[in-house]
Specification:
Blueprint lengths: L7 H18 L10 H9 L2 H8 L6 E3 L23 H20 L1 H8 L3 H9 L2 H8 L6 E3 L5 H11 L4 H17 L7 H19 L1
Antiparallel strand pairs: 1-2
Helix pairs in contact: 1-3, 1-4, 3-8, 4-5, 4-6, 4-7, 8-9, 9-10
Length: 210
């Protein structure tokens, strides 16, 4: 099976979301799931290192709730003033879900590589209405969590890469992190998709080198 590539616009959207997530982590009220040593390490990064980390070719965060089709929480008004999430966190959640919803309809390869959405999750997202997706998300009090938050080597590698001033070293660190995502089951055993991810990732890096 031939998998489409990821466009530069899609990479740019992912970078923008990563930047917003890292900014949110350093606020006085970070997402609940960002805690402990990882939070300390992310907060310790200077602005240049955070900017570099945001350039990772995949989303640095995921969600603490099931995709549409899973168990639902109590219904909440999307525009309610007493939202349980901070406005900063909800801004990222709603933008990221909209982004992945579009990708699940238009480029599922990108949804899986950039956001780690499972094949079943892509199906459910593509079939759902966007407002239903957001309505379900609004019933949770905190959603954002670091991608692979329990994978120490994954984050050690990414944080180390963010401190490298040479672009080639940073790209190498991201490549290792991407391979760890694949090994950790991000593609649920779909070998062809994993190979395609590596091929398109190499193509993206060669383009950036020009």
């Amino acid at each position: 099976m031939d998998y489409p590539g990821i466009t530069e616009r899609e990479f740019a959207d992912a970078r923008s979301l990563n930047r917003a997530f890292l900014d949110c982590v350093t606020t006085a009220k970070p997402p609940r799931a960002v805690s402990g040593r990882l939070k300390e390490s992310l907060t310790a990064l200077n602005s240049s290192q955070r900017e570099r980390l945001s350039e990772a070719p995949f989303l640095l965060f995921g969600f603490n709730y099931p995709m549409p089709g899973g168990p639902r929480g109590p219904s909440r008004d999307l525009l309610a003033e007493n939202r349980l999430m901070s406005s900063r966190e909800w801004r990222i959640v709603s933008a990221a879900l909209g982004f992945l919803w579009c990708l699940s309809r238009e480029n599922r390869y990108a949804a899986r590589l950039l956001g780690g959405v499972s094949p079943d999750g892509c199906e459910r997202l593509a079939e759902a209405r966007l407002l239903d997706v957001l309505d379900e998300a609004a019933s949770y009090d905190s959603l954002l969590k670091p991608r692979c938050c329990d994978a120490t080597l994954f984050w050690q590698g990414l944080l180390g890469a963010s401190r490298c001033r040479r672009p080639a070293e940073f790209r190498a660190g991201c490549s290792v992190a991407l391979h760890r995502l694949l090994i950790n089951g991000n593609f649920n055993g779909h070998v062809q998709l994993a190979v395609a991810a590596c091929q398109h990732g190499n193509k993206h890096r060669r383009t950036a080198d020009r």
